[in-house]
């Protein structure tokens, strides 16, 4: 069921409709707010728009790095599984 959740990011109130729990939506908002604070501190960017774009790029970078790492782990696991299947086939035949 979709619900409306109110969150504050960079002092601005946002009303978000989501099927996720209010706790999860607030956690997302805190995460975005924290990253925006970090970007603003590190880059000394004055405009909220530039801070938001830089924050989006930072979060996208984190996401892509995690996605690539997960793909590598999946590939490694699949190779190990294939090796185990081949070894078990040899043992069962032998």
TrEMBL record:
**This protein's record includes keyword tRNA processing:** no
Q: Which UniProt keywords apply?
A: Cell cycle, Cell division, Cytoplasm, Septation
Supply the source organism's classification.
Answer: Bacteria, Pseudomonadati, Pseudomonadota, Magnetococcia, Magnetococcales
> Its quaternary structure?
Homodimer. Interacts with FtsZ.
A matching Pfam family:
ZapA
Name this polypeptide is given: Cell division protein ZapA
Keyword Cell cycle among UniProt keywords: yes
According to the record, the segments passing through the membrane are none
Q: Which InterPro entries match?
A: Bac_CellDiv_Activator (IPR053712), Cell_div_ZapA-like (IPR007838), Cell_div_ZapA-like_sf (IPR036192)
What function does the entry list?
Activator of cell division through the inhibition of FtsZ GTPase activity, therefore promoting FtsZ assembly into bundles of protofilaments necessary for the formation of the division Z ring. It is recruited early at mid-cell but it is not essential for cell division.
Q: Where in the cell is it found?
A: Cytoplasm
């Amino acid at each position: 069921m979709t619900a409306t959740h109110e969150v504050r990011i960079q002092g601005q109130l946002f009303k978000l409709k989501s099927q996720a729990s209010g706790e999860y939506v607030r956690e997302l908002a805190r995460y975005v707010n924290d990253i925006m604070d970090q970007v603003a501190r590190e880059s000394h960017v004055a405009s909220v728009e530039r801070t938001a774009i830089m924050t989006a790029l930072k979060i996208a970078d984190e996401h892509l790095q995690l996605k690539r790492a997960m793909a590598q782990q999946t590939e490694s696991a699949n190779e190990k599984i294939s090796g185990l299947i081949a070894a078990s086939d040899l043992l069962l035949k032998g």
